[in-house]
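**User:**
If convenient, please work through this fold.
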Amino acid sequence: MGVGRLMDSDPKAFLKRLPTAPGVYRMLDASGTVLYVGKAKNLKRRVSSYFGRSLSTRIQLMVSQIADIEVTVTRTEGEALLLESNLIKSLLPRFNVLLRDDKSYPYILLTVQDDFPRLTFYRGPRKGAGRFFGPYPSSWAVRETLQLMQKLFPVRQCEDGFFRNRSRPCLQYQIKRCSGPCVGLVTPEEYAQDVARTIKFLDGRTSEVLEELAGAMDAAAERLEFERAAVLRDQIATLNRIRERQYVNGEGGDLDIVACAQEAGLNCVQVFFIRGGRNLGNKAFFPLAPEGTEAAGLLAGFLAQFYAEKAIPSELILSVEPEDAGLLEDAFSERAGRRVHFRTNVRGERARWLEMALGNALVALKSRLGSQAGYARRLEALMDALDLDELPERMECFDISHTQGERTVASCVVFNGEGPLKSDYRRFNIEGIVPGDDYAAMHQALTRRYTRVRQGEYPLPDVVFIDGGRGQLHAAEAAIAEVGVSNLRLVGVSKGPDRRPGTEQLWLLGQDLPVILPGDSPAMHLIEQIRDEAHRFAITGHRQRRAQARKTSVLEEIPGVGPKRRQQLLKYFGGLRGLTRAGVEEIAGVDGISRQLAQQIYDAFHHDSAGS
């Protein structure tokens, strides 16, 4: 659930809205890309720590890019740990990846093809024999699980060479971390039983394992094998503690949990996606509905639209029964090709899931209400600061990005009365100007944009922000005048004398001196957010254009590599990255590529990278 945008609100008020419960938080940049996923025992305390004074360089870099923070509230820190792992696997956030040992996620491998299978850490492609479990978010998580497995089920973890050459049991046997299959201290049947329980545990079938252990403990006690019964009792206790942490994993199965909350005319629908018993994550939606719409009607409308083009699981757990539930069930079943069930009266694990989803819907709703109120206040402050007759309903901002004049890109971002309107964002590849002439680039971008505005493709904005000072402002004024658009409020936004955030100057047409708003001005916070978003959008476009041009030019400049061979090479290696990593012999393995040409291709890429 989103708790509000950090860059357009007072950080203290933002942090104050965070719950103190355990959960998972996701740091997002201005484009909505997840930068980092973390877990916390106390979300407010943990997230607040990122805005203290003593931060590493890496954390400072991440914090400087945060525009929004989303949180998912869980019952325990253990649940947060598991959810964090699932989100990292699916989202691959930039700042989480940097903490991993490698670019690929680690797994646990069980060599089921062996007479006495080995349980081991594994990283790499999942090919060949064996059972793979994971992926895990880090090598630490794998090793922690392996240590846990040694205590629960003493399946060997030693190397095959070590295993084959033993004549007496090793230390692992002495400390009860291995059953000693290397020297025949356990029968193949007993070992296979431990392997089977290991598989069930790693598959999430903990209840089955507990039932087996409980039965074995009772049988051992009846045979007066009290030492064996005590071992089994300890295993059961350990597994019960683990199961408490795996609350969100449950018993398996695919289903969605959908919970809705309503307050002050705002609606929130929270959807949790459970696949194979694992919580893959959740998302909050804020559908618009006519005033007075009841929860049952809201949920019916949401479900019909949300699953119109999405795969439908066999079971939907709902906070309330939607209107026309039978009709919706039948329609979903027909579309899915199997029976789809709606359930509202649930018990046990499913009731806890629903409780968690409803709790997150309520927290997201309250946070959205607080965030909307803050955004409305900033719009009002902006109206006063710019002396507008009414609240601005549409604002656009332009920025220019290039590297020493190369591959210039202009951006246009749009904000409305609720925030960023990303569907109306546009980029312009600037051509035919003197490299590095920002005034000409701005003139071209606005001419192209407002020609389309005048043709009716886009509505006329109330305010247009230009990233730059008086020079860029006059270039914008000239471009808009040439197009024939009038009644636009143009505002230049330039850095202050020391270029520190919060010291920006506003340039208005007809005024010789800039307007300087206080650093804590809500209007200035909104302007900074809009300007920073335009800057980000321009830089992203420029980097993409520059990278594409450089990648393409390397192949195009190699004699003997025409369009057909370029296509053949890229297809063979799955893209330019694969080609740049290939050796001469691999390149020569492509049909029509001689070894001499392969050497030229290899040299072109590696000479280029060495010199850049």
About this structure: The two ends are 42 Å apart (CA to CA). The CA atoms of residues 407 and 544 lie 10 Å apart. The first helix runs from residue 11 to 16. The first strand starts at residue 2 and ends at 5.
